Amino acid sequence: MQLSEVTVFVGFFSLMFFDLIKAQWNTNEYMKREHSLIKPYQGSGTGILHWDFIGSTMVTNNYIRLTPDLQSKSGAIWNSVPVSVRNWDLQVQFKVHGKGKDLFGDGFAVWYSKDRMQPGIVFGSTDLFHGLAVILDTYSNHNGPHNHQHPYISAMINNGTLHYDHDRDGTHTQLAGCEAKFRNVDYDTYISVKYEHDVLTVK
Ligand SMILES: [Ca+2]
């Protein structure tokens, strides 16, 4: 993967009621302000410095909601500053909740991609993307063979030639994945994505 040599952006996307409470980007223990979302998100102006949002995304002082608890909604928030460091480490604090008992939304993804602000069918961004997607899939389409439960977290790398297949929940293009129970829980969930010395670690 040659991500350090291209211009990449960070984005978050969801098709569900999702609150992004905090997102931080660390490089060698040094937080990069231009890649971080820090409270209060909304200052005196209407925008967020270094971040752009589209679709149903709503920003308040305390949280960023990608989508409301309604059908067929999508939203995204993208960092507007290209990433120039080779090794990086980011954390996202989030909550996935709604009025439904169990099923709501398709999921969301943390994007490290060249294809910024391009709404599409793959968790709010474009198919045939360039870069990395860490996908938090909450809906089991499961029309093909796989035996994991949902929610399911997986990583996918693309050079613009691979299609994400929702019918198979992306399993044939994933690098790896695991189940994680983050839907409709009372507490916030944290995900850590680290890319260091060509090794990707998601916790
Ligand atoms: Ca799915």
From TrEMBL:
Q: Which InterPro entries match?
A: ConA-like_dom_sf, Intracellular_Lectin-GPT, Lectin_leg
Query: Where is the protein localized?
Result: Membrane
User: PANTHER family from the xrefs?
Assistant: RE50040P (PTHR12223:SF45), VESICULAR MANNOSE-BINDING LECTIN (PTHR12223)
Question: Can you quote a single GO CC term?
Answer: Golgi membrane
Keyword Signal assigned to the entry: answer is yes
Q: Which organism is it from?
A: Agrilus planipennis (Emerald ash borer)
Q: Which GO terms describe its biological process?
A: endoplasmic reticulum to Golgi vesicle-mediated transport
Write the record's keywords in alphabetical order, separated by commas.
Membrane, Signal, Transmembrane, Transmembrane helix
Keyword Cell membrane annotated: no
Bilayer topology annotation: Single-pass type I membrane protein
Q: Which SUPFAM superfamilies match?
A: Concanavalin A-like lectins/glucanases
Could you give a GO molecular-function term held by this entry?
A: D-mannose binding
Name of the protein in question: VIP36-like protein
| Cited Gene3D superfamilies | 2.60.120.200
Q: What residue range is the signal peptide?
A: 1-23
Matching Pfam families, A to Z?
Lectin_leg-like
Superkingdom of the source?
A: Eukaryota
- Domain spans labelled L-type lectin-like: 29-203
